[in-house]
Amino acid sequence: MFVEEKKIHISKPLKLNSGKVLSAYDLMYETYGQLNDDKSNAVLVCHALSGNHHVAGLHKGDEKPGWWDNMIGPGKPINTDKLFVVCMNNLGGCHGSTGPTSINEETNNPYGFEFPIVTVQDWVNSQKVLMDEFGIDKWQFIIGGSLGGMQALQWSLDYPDNVNNAIIIAASPKLTAQNIAFNEVARQAITSDPEWCDGNYLKQGKIPKRGLALARMLGHITYLSDESMAKKFGRDLKQDKINFNFDVEFQIESYLRYQGEKFVTSFDANTYLLMTKALDYFDPFNEIDFVERMSKSRSRFLVISFTSDWRFPPKRSEEIVKTLIKFNKDVSYACIKSDGGHDAFLMKNDNYFEIMRTYIEANING
Amino acid sequence: MARKDFDLITEWVEPDSRILDLGCGDGSLLELLNKKRNVSGYGVDTSIDKTIKSLDNKINIINADINDHMHYFKDKSFDYVILAQSLQVVDNPILLIKEMLRIGNEAIISFPNMGYWRSRLYLFFKGEMPVTSELPFSWHSTPNIHLCTIKDFKKMCFLNNFQITEEVINNVNGKNISSSFLNNLIGTSAIFRIK
């Protein structure tokens, strides 16, 4: 399945949660499947911290498909034979939608550190703009894992009439102190890199590679589980003996360094800072008018968690479920046995995929 | 599969009620109640396969263990909390029934009667724990850890101030024999409404 990314320019200003305004902006997105005549088969997939709009299919010339290609496509749980799937790069991102690497028309320089802080609500508002461009009235499903699941939850509150089903996977109603602590260490890694140049590294032709790689390595550890790391790497050595030095000796060290180095070639440090802030600020159950807005939501919900996820453990998902039950919402919940850690939401797992497939199939027409 | 206790529960449940079905299996009771009584609510079941079947039946299903997830539900938030043919698998029946009465205005509980004469004879003559078509497990591999007789159940209700408001005891032909003084001997299954 070859896909092409598309870009739309929005000239209507977007007022952000922080009070700042984006006077005009671009949204990069991809679509899969066909929108039906009454526009009732539309699905929005929201991406997580380091994701982007290329969620499935192949770009011409690429060998690797989009990041959730096992879940989305013809005959797959999110079945593009029947559904029209939209995924867009979030504002503040670095894959085509306006963000810190874009040129600020007012200064003719990259936004860099000047790019305003965006929140999950801002993303939802910009996704609504794209929805209106398509002329879609209701998303049949909004689906996301991790930070993507948080967007699905936010949608059900902010646009109660425009969401029929929200599927919230490996998410949390808010970050804990421990979660925020991890984010803060990642941010410190980036901003203490001498190449960060107070956030204006692009203008100075530099990239804070070490800091961003460190942030990614730290993040990556929290996406895996102790079990999966033990299974994949154990205490395996790169060479067959220890050398009593500080070079890469264990396989896990080598793997983490590789992940860090790979990440800096495709991701922007300021975007990473913004994404972690959006996570930290997310707390929809404590927003003003929450009770009123939650009461109004007409969405059905499917919440999924994974046993070995310690970044957003099942307990966090259960907080979402408990709140939805409190408001008498139609909600189903499953905790999937998996040793994949937080990243389990991206991996093939029979029970997980069967739950997704069955729920979507049963609710495809309302 | 048509189940006698399902028909009775359908008769008892008021239209448009809110239902919590503990150990809901594939959600067929909620599906039936939804069709006949326009109810809303949730099923709870620990099996992932049953959860998938419930999703297929468009039932709101919480995939969790009923022994330790009652904190999901707030006080008096359901009209009926149902435990159909699952009492015998519960870790602590008294604690769970207390929780059911906290969460619901009323509890409905059905269970197989171990006082049925065939069970008594099985143990008496064979000297082994009864294995029947309803309870087909050997003693060492059974999930049914808290089997009881109708007399046992009533005694527990009395001792814990669970007020029985209605009871139906069926014989092997599905006939209500609750008025018979031999009901604990000839009844195969029982269903109680408790407040």
CATH superfamily of the largest domain in chain A: Alpha/Beta hydrolase fold, catalytic domain
Tally of separate helices of chain B: 7
Low-confidence stretches of chain A: none
CATH class of the largest domain in chain A: Alpha Beta
Average the pLDDT over all residues of chain A and give the rounded result: 96
Low-confidence stretches of chain B: none
Largest interchain contact: A-B, 23 and 22 residues
Number of domains of chain A: 2
Total strands of chain B: the figure is 7
Helix percent of chain A reads: 25-40%
Order of helices and strands of chain A: EEEEEEEEEEHEHEHHHHHHEHEH
Number of strands of chain A: 14
Structural class of chain B: alpha/beta
Helix percentage range of chain B: 25-40%
Describe the structure.
The complex is a heterodimer of chains A (366) and B (195). With 366 residues, chain A is α/β, with parallel strands linked by helices. Chain A has two domains: 6-175 and 283-362, Rossmann fold, CATH 3.40.50; 179-277, Rna Polymerase Sigma Factor, Chain: A (Orthogonal Bundle), CATH 1.10.1740. Chain A is 34% helix and 16% strand. Chain A is globular. The mean pLDDT of chain A is 96. Chain B is globular. Chain B has a single domain, classed as 3-Layer(aba) Sandwich (Rossmann fold). Chain B has helices spanning 4-12, 28-37, 48-56, 93-103, 117-126, 150-159, 183-186; strands spanning 18-22, 40-45, 61-63, 78-84, 104-112, 164-170, 189-194. Chain B contains seven helices and seven strands; from the N terminus they run αβαβαββαβααβαβ. By secondary structure, chain B is of the alpha/beta class. The two termini of chain B are 29 Å apart. At the A-B interface, helix 9, strand 14 and helix 10 of A face helix 3 and strand 3 of B.
Labels describing this entry:
heterodimer; A: 366 residues; Rossmann fold; Rna Polymerase Sigma Factor, Chain: A; 2 domains; eight-stranded mixed sheet; two-stranded antiparallel sheet; 10 helices; B: 195 residues; alpha/beta; 7 helices
